[in-house]
Known about the structure:
- 44% of the residues lie in helices and 12% in strands.
- It is α/β, with parallel strands linked by helices.
- The longest helix has 17 residues, at 229-245.
- The protein has one domain (7-226): TIM Barrel (Alpha-Beta Barrel), CATH 3.20.20.70.
- The chain has an eight-stranded parallel sheet with strand order 2-1-8-7-6-5-4-3.
Amino acid sequence: MTTVLRGCGTALITPFTRAGTVDEPALRALVDWQVAEGIHFLVPCGSTGEAVTLTPDEHRRVVEVVVEQARGRVPVVAGAGSNDTRKAIAMSAAMRAAGATHLLHVSPMYNKPPQRGIIAHFSAIAAETDLPIVLYNVPGRTGSNIEARTTLALAEVKGIAAIKEASGNLSQVHEILRGRPPGFAVLSGDDSLTLAMMAAGAEGVISVTSNATPRKMAQLCDRSAAGEMAGARALHAELVPWMEAAFCESNPIPVKAAVAMLGRCENVLRLPMVPLAADKEPVVRAALAAAGAS
């Protein structure tokens, strides 16, 4: 039986060198730091990892590096999504070969299939891989929502193990939590809603902010899961300024700037993403300081 994903998983940035290539030493160091700080699983090659601007070879290599450096200490949930079902199936096979333990599949973006098309898409992928799949619902990026009834239908499909819910709709989340089958995990896709979702019964978060504050985000999840809500609320209050600053521009612009401020990578992104605007830098620095990032 597949182990249920719980706690805080970091949606890893992809460090680049000043020449624009993948910075493998920085990535390896980031993985080691994340694990040492108590992160529960790692999620390379998602939107935070700038997967859309990685070549297929780079995408696979990033996952290989994360798997190698994790050394089985935590699960590795590799981004494998596409709005072309055939490409998503091929990417799933490549991520399996790279050593991923789970797959993250975003709902098809831009072509906006109806709900029955979303079900057909994910069901076709699940039929072609033996790795557990985490659905990713992020209407703000895809242009369409995975409705709660669609998620619940997919939760019954063999191999579909969880959802990263980033709709921002707590009523929808509650409907999923009420109707889900045993073993199907619900993970927040919004850092700021982690506390609320876990209080309602969700298992954790796939976090952007934990790139810079892994220990506190992991502790927030640990305390929430243990029912230590006063402690969880206190951590949430400490992290709120950073949670807000991390999205002062499009993700991953602020979080990559933050990790660079901590000296853990170069502040290099691939076009069309650009470095953080100069007037936003003091906001991010102040938020990191308030969160105790180091």
